[in-house]
Amino acid sequence: MKKVLIPTDLTLYSLQLIRYALNLLQNESCHITLLHLTPASDSITDLLTLPRPQKPELEFNKALERLRRLHSVEIQDIQVTHMYCANSSDLKQFVRENQIDLVLSTVSRSRNTEALSFFNELLQDIPFPVLYIPEFFAPNSFRKIAFVLDVDVKNSALPDKELIDLLWRKECRVTFLLVFKPGTSTDNLTRALASLYSLPFLREVTYAVHLVQQRDVTEGIISFIDEYEVDLVVSCKKKSVLDYLRLGRQARSRERAITTKVPCLSVA
Questions:
Q1: pLDDT tens for residues 18-73?
Q2: Where is the UspA domain (predicted)?
Q3: Distance in angstroms (rounded) separating the CA atoms of residues 219 and 33
Q4: Fewer CB within 10 A of the terminal residue: the chain, N end or C end?
Q5: Largest separation between any pair of C-alpha atoms in the chain
């Protein structure tokens, strides 16, 4: 059973992320925690004046009950948790104590409420798998998955067995994408590929490897997504060529383009 953490502002919109979690996990059972954060201060005076946790409206509770009934096999339990949170350390501790396997986040820039925006700000320093969902992406099965590798490969930049087991299904098409700039050392490319091919758990997985030479790495990734109609992009480092997914950062329009196309699973 997987434990999934999803932020909520107690609106029906925030419940949509549950469908993405179910599509990713497919038939595996899960426990879902809907976390509603209220910003807290380190000041004792401010703590005394904290507002009471917001109560969900009737329609939210009704929708939650429908989800429980509709997905009673896949979802063992859904719980709504309210939490006062001062910084990312508080959120990190919550994730660890509750043994969360996967965190979901929306990258909507027009519908983020204060609660969702606050969650996303804290999320950047959380060293756990995070699935970023673009605003206008319809839930579907992730059948074409692209793992983005770093030309300066380190062990942390490669997928581990748990990640492959989570994502790979027999009907999936898995591609490892290595985008490199002109002038990149052949030794670096050889070392990156050798590290990939040496992973023993990939022997049971059917996959392809694509090398793309592009001066602008981001453009290379976007072009590949367009051409091969990728459903899910996976980055094994949060601070990598996909770090423009970090909300709150002033990204250029070119860099934001990828977030409007496909979800991205970022693994620290």
A1: 888 888 887 788 999 999 888 876 555 555 555 666 677 788 889 999 998 988 88
A2: 1-131
A3: 36
A4: N
A5: 61
Token pair 């329009």 in the structure block, residue: 253
Region for 134 from its dihedrals, namely left if φ exceeds 0, alpha if ψ lies in -120 to 50, beta otherwise: beta
Mean pLDDT across 244-255: 40
Cα separation, 190 vs 196, in Å, equals 10
Both structure tokens of 110:
């027009």
In terms of Cα–Cα distance, which of 97, 162, 167, 101 is closest to 128?
Answer: 101
Rounded to an integer, what distance in angstroms lies between the CA atom of residue 130 and that of residue 138?
Answer: 18
- Please state the domain extents for the chain: 2-133, 144-266
What 3-state DSSP class applies to 256?
helix
CATH number for the domain formed by residue range(s) 2-133: 3.40.50.620
pTM of the model: 0.76
DSSP per residue over 69-103, as a string? Answer: HHTTTTEEEEEEEEEEE-SHHHHHHHHHHTT--EE
> Strands 264-266 and 130-133: what pairing?
antiparallel
Same fold, 2-133 and 144-266: yes
3-state helix, strand, coil in the chain (%, to 5): 40, 25, 40
**Residue 18: burial class (beta carbons within 10 Å; 0-12, 13-18, 19+):** buried
Long-range contacts of 40-47, Cβ-Cβ distance < 8 Å, separation of 24 or more: 40/84, 40/85, 40/86, 40/90, 41/86, 42/86
Name the residue type at position 155: N
Read off the tokens for 139: 């839930």
